[in-house]
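Board work, copied verbatim: Nucleotide-diphospho-sugar transferase domain-containing protein
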Amino acid sequence: MLSSAGARSPLFALAVTAGIVLIFIFGFLTWQTPVKLPFPHTSTHVGTTAGHGTQGSVGDALRLLFAPIRVPPSQKELADETGKKFSLPEKTRYNKELGKKILILDLETRELESTKAYNEGHYDWRKINHVSGGIFNHYAYAMVHGYDYKFIHAAEFEDRHGTWIKPSALANNINDYDFIVFLDADATFRYMHLPIEWLLNHWEIEPKHAITMALDPWDPESPQYNSDAKNRTYTNTGFMVVQNTDKTQEILKAWHECPDDTRYKDCSQWKKPKFHEQSAFGEFIRYDYGQYIKELPCAEANGYPGVSVAHCEGLFIRHYWFEKQHVKNIFMENVMQTITLSIQKLFAENDPNTVYNQSKNEILVH
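↓ predict structure ↓
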């Protein structure tokens, strides 16, 4: 890939414009006759709001592109590429799109390396790391479904690990939304056409559930790993659904203040040692607020293909604790599946402006 002359060069602007136009064309062609999309095969700024401001055209293009394949919140049955079916309960709670009532949230103490490269005029998708790849997945997902999005670049703590930014950031934003969906940079939405509302129905999240997390992998042959002092499996804070309830702020405050050893003795031991805020939540918070916590199967919202322990293969949410290079693949495959579906449609339906049938292999022009 040739480097652009500068971050704001005319050729760069032309390329971006052309790309957006192509996406609109492909999306429009697909939209004309909705096609069922099978689940794709997979091997494996602060305070920005999705679809607002200068990024509106990109958001419009993504929504148009994914519109024909987006799953309705209450669609009763889905099947993955293996034919395995997933059904919703008979009665579903979330039957309409929640739109801006949902916030997709990224929290980082790190600067995005891809932003630095962009500002220097040599952004290259092939070279970005998993952090940017994961955040792009989250941001694009928010635009596809019309959710709000924020990337919060938080300051480092002086006395504890950087992941302790989670409770306070969630508390500072939850009052403005019905739900906040948070993901670590190495966690991804496996299917970008599957909305949060469908997952809320599938997981049967009730109005009382302030925080929802997936369990970590647990092996009975090695029970000392991923377990608290009572041998109960930890939940993983790399993916959380936080609901605005009358208990949410209380829980988040207790969690944030846990290392101060005021309410919970010896919680300060988790300021820096693994697993930081996750251990504190598992050792203390969930025991006081258990009825407001929803624990999901590790197989559905944690891990990735190849993790045999507890079948933690990331059916809906994938969390690449290792092999982080696959984070980019999830995003790439989702986008390319959708774009090339539009192209394939032209050939499959013998579009007269694209596909010409030649009955005889002879020269007809004299």
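The first helix runs from residue 10 to 32.
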